[in-house]
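To whoever picks this up:

The parser on our side crashed when reading a file containing two proteins. I've narrowed it down to the boundary between the first structure block and the second sequence. Both blocks are reproduced below exactly, byte for byte. First block:
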Amino acid sequence: MREGITVEVSAADRARLKAIVADRNSPQKHVWRAAVILATAEGCGTAEIMRRAGVSKPCVWRWQARFMAEGVAGLLRDKTRPPGTPPLPSATVERVVELTHQAPPGEATHWTGRAMAEAVGISLSAVQGIWKAHGLVPHRVRTFKLSRDPAFIAKLRDVVGLYLHPPTHAVVLSVDEKSQIQALERTQTGLPMKQGRCATATHDDQRHGTTTLFAALNLLDGTVIGRCMQRHRHQEFLRFLNTVEAAVPAGKLVHAILDNYGTHKHPKVLAWLERHPRWTFHFVPTSCSWLNAVETFFAKLTRRRLRRGSFHSLVALQAAINRFVEEANEDPRPFVWTAEPEGIIEKVRRGYQAFRSLQ
């Protein structure tokens, strides 16, 4: 220790310093600062304290002086340093936020960081910092569609009621078709993923035709009945309905949830429905495909099998889809719906209010 400097550590301070050293959750900087003071209290010289704490001589002297001036609390606090650059004026920050909520000049569709920096006269990093602090992301956009179905509430309650409270002695099916699935073959083999590089794929491809997947998701057990067909007319839909009819056990009522595609309401389909009295169709509101549960299966199929796939023929594509359906049925999981109808209706009402406020 430097000459003329003495460090007096009370019993309470010593106990507190030992607790800091023993606590496994203490920051390491607090631990070695406490170790410096404890070693000083034991009468160790500066060289020994440096060895124990693993710090330099000026560092030992600095924290000894801090402890003598402020006690244990001084060891747990770092002095603030002035920023390297002065903060932006509040008027400039408010100007950036205000402009971000307005349309950009000219025919630009949205603000970019560089355009905002040029308009306000600040740096790009300053604009990005303001946007981050205020939660503004002008480069992103989310699509939406508010249903204009006059029977929206009634259809919503009907479909969600089947999800939340399925009827007994009945099968609830979510039925839809995923049309225009393209058999795309990459023109060259992509490179595999490795450290520092993601997997690669060519931007162009060869097209070998399209197929349509008709699927019916059993909400109670999570199994899927799927069939690939060349087209998606009412003739193909009727063949698929006959396939589902043969697969559903006899004596079970069938509640089918469908969207408003014209094929589902074709006169021949409605005639088929009259000939099969155990079937009941439940149509979701218009512009509400998200309400049809089988869309979750289609999304999983796209992510895991189609988007990055390469298929040299239409037969190969259909075989891959069929294998995916079989794998899904090997470990099925019941569909679980948690949103109550009232909550959905309230969100739609808020959406209409926000829409009307902009008109």
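<<boundary where parser fails>>
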Amino acid sequence: MTILITGGTGFVGSHTVALLHRRGRAVHLLVRDRRRAARALRPHGVDLAELRVTTGDVTDPATVAAAVRDCSAVLHAASVYSFDPRRRAEIRAVTRRGTEVVLDASRAAGVPRVVHVSTFGALVPAPGPVTADSPVARPREAYLSAKAAAERVARRHQDEGAPVTIVHPPALLGPLDPNLGDQTARIRDVLRGLMPIWPDGGFPIGDVRDLAALHARLLDGAPGPARVAGQGRFVTTRELLAGLRRVTGRRLPAVHLPAAALLPVGRLAGLAQRVLPVHVPVEYGAIYACRVARPLATTATDELLGAAARPLVETLTDTVRWLHEAGHVSAAQAGRAGAG
């Protein structure tokens, strides 16, 4: 059984590749840069030479059609995860168009099992409780809007009878983030003292290793719903900071303000970000997500995996420890977690 994975150089993709490889699955990667793929997988103990690799872009129909040929399953995890306004065009192109190309090619090739990685953010804002079957929302933010558009593509394939499963991960943390994505970078910035002001509200948080286990289960053909929520729990920003204080032993002082009051600040920071050469750790998208996010029901996923999600304190400890080991924060900034 050969499993094609797009987005294997990312946080989600690299953890999923590593888990499947450890379990003896034949993995085929579609990547734009082999060297980047090697760097992402090396910390997991995966040698790229042991995998089948196709170099190309998920938005190129010919490349994707060749890659899916003879595959028994496809995990489409490729997207651009960022709230950086400078990357809007790239986010739209890769996220929506890539989904169209990969799912069209998989269907044309008769691939019997396709897993599309969406996000909880494609389902908010919502008027009430959110489940994996909630209607696709129309978020007012570039990244979430692109993911919602991609989800509509995946749901259209489902409606037409294609064997597509949609997974809705929460915001993810954990070790070995090869590109230091927005969530991991946010933890780093907190530890560096760069985020003294936080919006109220919160968002679902999960562990990337739990999501990789869910992907592996689905790719192995486990029966389950057509739409699945990734494991995690809703965490307020106050709870997140309290958790970081607990695992580091540091005070990490912060001021909390209503998310609605901070949205204009986020917009101004986004405009400034377009001309500033350095990243501004104030993002409209992150503030917006804190305002509109809702808890996502995961009971069915817990039953599918036979286990609950990792505790938040474990995920935070492992994230901070890895940030220290990778040189992103100092021993003093990592506190107790860095000394463990």
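After patching the parser it read the second block fine. Residues 88-108 form the longest helix (21 residues). The radius of gyration is 19 Å.
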